[in-house]
Each structure stands twice: as C-alpha cells, then as structure tokens.
Design a protein that fits this description.
Elements: H1 6-9, E1 10-13, H2 19-29, E2 35-38, H3 40-56, E3 60-67, H4 71-82, E4 88-92, H5 95-105, E5 111-115, H6 123-128, H7 135-149, E6 153-155, H8 161-168, E7 173-176, H9 195-201, E8 205-208, H10 210-213, H11 218-235
Parallel strand pairs: 1-2, 1-8, 2-3, 3-4, 4-5, 5-6, 6-7, 7-8
Helix pairs in contact: 4-5, 5-7, 7-8, 9-11
Active site: 64, 66, 69
Domain Orotidine 5'-phosphate decarboxylase: 9-225
Binding site for substrate: 15, 37, 64-73, 119, 180, 189, 209-210
C-alpha cells in the first residue's frame, strides 16, 4: 500500500440530518478535511447525489451503505455505486454478499470494505443476537474471508486492528470507526480508541463523527486529530 498522508487518513462522518447541514459542515471544514463518510442518515436525505457532487469536487467519499441482500441486488447496487465516483463503499462481511460485490465491481476503482462487527456491539450484544463467537473472533473470521474473496479493506474497531492487520497483511485497508479523542464522550460506541491508539494499532483510516461535528470549532477539532495522526505515524516509524 502506498503511504497515506495524515490528512487523508481522517474520514469525517457526515452524520447530519440533511444535505444543507452537510454542505455547511464541509464548507466550514474547508481544506482541513479531504475525506468524508456519507452514511445511512444522509443517504436517505438526498445524500447519494451529495456524495456524487463531493467526488466531482475532488473530495474522497466513503459511501457507508452497508450492503446486505440477495446476490443480484448487491451486485446491481455496486454497479450503481461505481458510477458515483466514490472511493470506498461498505458491504456487510457475509461471504455471498462480498463475492457478489467484488464480481460486480470488476476493474473499477471503487474500493470495497467488509464490515465485520459494528463498533456499537460488544460480546454481550452478539450473544443477544444469537452469535456464539466473541466479537474479536468474529472479526478475525470475517476479515480472513474478506481477504480470500478479494475485498479491498476491512471495517473493524480499533481494538481489533492489530489482529486484523496480521490476518489481512499490508495491502488491505483497515478503517476504524469508534474514534474518540481523549476526554470526549463515547456516546453509543462500545469498542473505542483515541486517534493515536488506533494508528499505533495498525489502522489506516479513522472515521470521526461527533467529536468534530459537535465541536464548538469543527475545523480546529479536525486539525487537532490530524496532528495526533501525524504524531502516531511518526511513532509507528512511517514516513
């Protein structure tokens, strides 16, 4: 994998109610942020066109659609996403869904990420959902399958980043939600880490929402996180 500039490692989650709010946040952040996540809340409020427009404007876009359906539906959804020009799109890490997505993507530049276990879930939540495996074990199994199928990256919590890196090797991207700078509220996240901890654990990209979106000065909050990423990269011994 080519070296990733520190600023490009920060993905700001546009978890806002509408396109107007997203546009205001993007404008306010300016050149401090190069990469944005458009997730379900915004997708269902006009966010698909907004994602396309962001890509046209030169921003990188992570379309967090979390695809999971019958093979044919996943395949056609990926074909549509390819035409948006976004950088990343997510698929729940079920083997058939991932295989359908990889086949439909073909030689397009879209990078497909397998969602392992949501960062809002812990072992007790998985047990309630009927899973016998612990979160770490399920993440590991799904990461291995994603690599074998030909996915481009993994979405996992910072707690599993080191183990996932050993499984997927150096070439697959590891994207970590659940990032909370020291002293900030965890909200509904369970398996969290600071930016420094996540980068040192092996993460490539950090998804950050509320600590930036809800900050009194979002631009300064973003710049501070980029600074922490830069320091962690240096400590990890990378350029």
């Amino acid at each position: 994998m080519q070296p990733i500039p520190a600023r490009d490692r920060l993905i700001v989650a546009l978890d806002v109610p509408d396109v107007d709010a997203a546009e205001a946040l993007v404008t306010g952040l300016g050149d401090s942020v190069t990469f944005y996540k458009v997730g379900m809340q915004l997708i269902y409020a006009g966010g698909v066109d907004f994602a396309r427009n962001l890509a046209v404007a030169g921003k990188k876009v992570f379309l967090d659609a979390k695809l999971l359906d019958i093979d044919n539906t996943v395949a056609h959804a990926v074909e549509s996403i390819v035409r948006l020009g976004v950088t990343f799109a997510t698929v729940h890490a079920y083997p058939k869904a991932m295989q359908a997505a990889v086949t439909a993507r073909g030689e397009a530049s879209l990078r497909l990420l397998g969602v392992t276990v949501l960062t809002s879930m812990d072992d007790a939540d998985l047990a309630d959902a009927g899973y016998a495996a612990r979160a770490a074990d399920l993440v590991a199994a799904r990461a291995a399958r994603a690599r074998a199928i030909g996915m481009d990256g993994i979405v996992a919590s910072p707690a599993e980043a080191t183990a996932v890196r050993r499984i997927v090797g150096p070439d697959l991207a590891i994207v970590t939600p659940g990032i909370r700078p020291a002293g900030t509220d965890h909200g509904d996240q369970r398996r969290v880490a600071t930016p420094d901890m996540a980068i040192r654990a092996g993460a490539d990209y950090l998804v950050v929402g509320r600590p930036i979106n809800a900050a009194a000065d979002p631009k300064s909050a973003a710049d501070a996180i980029v600074g922490e990423i830069e320091a962690a990269i240096a400590a990890r011994g990378e350029a």
